[in-house]
Write a structure and sequence with these properties.
The chain has helices spanning 18-24, 27-43, 55-67, 78-85, 104-113, 131-139, 152-170, 200-211, 219-227, 236-249; strands spanning 5-6, 47-51, 71-75, 92-95, 122-126, 144-147, 150-151, 174-177, 180-183, 188-191, 194-196, 217-218, 256-259, 263-266. By secondary structure, the protein is of the alpha/beta class. It has a five-stranded parallel sheet with strand order 3-2-4-5-6, with helices on both faces. Strands 8-9-10-11 form a four-stranded antiparallel sheet, with helices on one face. A three-stranded antiparallel sheet has the order 12-14-13. Helix 8 crosses helix 9 (219-227) and helix 8 (200-211) crosses helix 10.
Length: 270
């Protein structure tokens, strides 16, 4: 809908009834939105939560999503979001940054640190357009970052793109090497049929080595990928986790080879 966009302060939004807004659509816009609605309904998209304190913007975003075949619900604060999520988990969350009470950055941090919500995709929708803010949001775990003003057709397209990416990532994916199996989707590890219990970091470390089977991964590469490039600890952290991982894997731990002076490798060469 190039004729309609959201501004940073909520001004310029049509304040008339939704029926009047619909009447203003030209035939081309109506055809496009009808097609999008049908496709979304066929894909079975579920609930999207929108956390936005500006009522005009919140209502427009929710209405746009509903018009294009999504289910959507809006909230003014993070506390309202928390209450809703106790009853029903959404498929995606739209999150403003400048909110009353708890800001969007902290809400995002909570969502990504909770095992029940960390896999729910989050799109930041905000007026904060500085590069620093974008980087902070994306590195905090946001799947996309949309700055106001923006058009509704672009908004819907971005929502659908994030949902497609997450759908592909959630498909059954399994890594294996000589009887050692890592089911990424289920977050399970087994060796010759026996399930191995690992911590989150141990699992991520093993997953990274398995994804790069046969290649030597340096300690710095492992730190950057598993702990994040802003981790201010030492490479010794990697050695400690590898040792613990080997112990928990038992016989399969021998598949992890130490390459002196470089790092670690896992593969059929062992």
């Amino acid at each position: 809908m190039p004729w309609l966009s959201v501004s940073a302060d909520g001004q310029g939004l049509c304040s008339k009834k939704k029926a009047v807004i619909l009447k203003a659509w030209n035939r081309k816009d109506q055809t496009i939105m009808k097609c999008q609605r049908q496709k979304n309904e066929q894909r079975g998209y579920r609930m999207i939560y929108c956390v936005e304190d500006e009522r005009n913007i919140r209502e427009l975003l929710v209405y746009t999503l509903e018009t294009t075949g999504f289910e959507a619900e809006g909230f003014e604060t993070g506390a309202e979001l928390d209450t809703a999520m106790k009853k029903n988990m959404p498929e995606l969350i739209l999150l403003d940054i400048m909110l009353p009470g708890e800001d969007g950055y902290n809400i995002l941090k909570r969502l990504k640190s909770d095992t029940r919500t960390r896999d729910i995709p989050v799109i930041m929708v905000t007026a904060k357009e500085a590069e620093f803010d974008k980087v902070k949001g994306l590195e905090g775990g946001a799947d996309d970052y949309i700055t106001k003003p923006f058009g509704m057709m672009e908004f819907v397209a971005r929502v659908k793109a994030v949902l497609r990416r997450c759908a592909r990532q959630s498909e059954e994916r399994e890594l294996h090497c000589k009887g050692l199996r890592v089911n990424v989707s289920r977050h399970e590890v087994s060796y010759q049929g026996e399930v191995k219990e690992l911590t989150r970091k141990e699992f991520e470390l093993l997953e990274y080595l398995m994804e790069n089977k046969g290649l030597v991964m340096s300690r710095n590469q492992i730190l950057c990928h598993v702990w994040g490039y802003d981790f201010d600890g030492e490479t010794r952290t990697v050695d400690v986790h590898v040792r613990t991982l080997r112990q928990k894997l038992g016989e399969a731990g021998n598949l992890i080879e130490t390459v002196r002076g470089v790092g670690y490798r896992i593969g059929d060469h062992v």
